[in-house]
Structure formats: structure tokens, C-alpha cells
Amino acid sequence: MNRLSDAHAFGVVGVVALVTLALRAAPFFVLRKPAADGYLRHLGEKMPTGVMVLLVAYTLEDLDVTVPPFGLPTLVPLAVAAVVDAKTDNALLSIGGGVALHMALVNGVV
Asked: Which of 2, 61, 62, 64 has the fewest CB atoms within 10 Å, measured from its CB?
């Protein structure tokens, strides 16, 4: 069996770390250029909303509202998060509050 030397393993980890850093930093550099006006800017503005809609749809996909607790541990935090977001326009507060309430209800803490 071939084993990696320590230097080779550190090299692989270093390359993976650099590629990950470059991929995460690339959108900031691309969107800074004047050519980013238009489609890329539009994606940057609309994509977070689209991702959240997909996450909500995925969460509600298998929700069974015909048996107790009738989906309340999922639907109540969803409604609370929507109201908090509408009132405060603070995504961190609405998502964090909704997740915390969901976890409390699902685990029976309340």
C-alpha cells in the first residue's frame, strides 16, 4: 500500500485550501469590475432570495399536516421568521429566530 509522506499530505491540503480561498474570493473581484453591471449584478441581488425560497420549499416538501402536531413545529417558526423579516428587514434575526424556535418546538423544549 502506498502511503503519502507528510510533506505530500501538507502540500495537498495547502493546494485545496488555496483553491477554496480563491473560489470564495472570486465573486467579490468579479462583481467589482464595471462589466459586472447587468446580469451578474442581477444574480447577486436575486440569488439569496431564490436560495431561501428553495430551502423553504424543501423543508415543506414532506410536511404532513394530517397527523399531530399538524406541522406546527415547522409552520409556526416559518410564520414568525416571515413576520420578523418583514418588520425588521434583518435576515440574521429572522433566520436565527426561526431556527431557534423550530429547534425548541421540535425538541419539545417549549
From this structure: 2
